[in-house]
Amino acid sequence: MTSTGIRLHAPAPGWSIPADVVVVGSGVAGLTAALRCEAAGLTTVVVTKARLDDGSTRWAQGGIAAALGDGDTPGQHLDDTLVAGAGLCDEDAVRLLVTEGPDAVRRLIGTGARFDTDDAGSIQLTREGGHHRRRIAHAGGDATGAEISRALVGAVRARGLRTIENALVLDLLTDAEGRTAGVTLHVMGEGQHDGVGAVHAPAVVLATGGMGQVFSATTNPPVSTGDGVALALRAGAEVSDLEFVQFHPTVLFLGPDAEGQQPLVSEAVRGEGAHLVDADGTRFMLGQHELAELAPRDIVAKGITRRMQELGAAHMYLDGRHFGAEMWEHRFPTILAACRAHGIDPVTEPIPVAPAAHYASGGVRTDERGRTTVPGLYACGEVACTGVHGANRLASNSLLEGLVYAERLAADIAAEHTENGPHTRVPAPVPHHGTPAHPLLAPEDRLAVQRIMTEGAGVLRSAASLERAARRLAELHARASDTLDGEGKTAEPGVDTWEATNLLDVARVLVAAAALREETRGCHWREDHADRDDPHWRRHLVVTLRADRSLAVRTTESADFPPTR
Question: Which family does it belong to (predicted)?
Answer without folding.
Answer: Belongs to the FAD-dependent oxidoreductase 2 family. NadB subfamily.
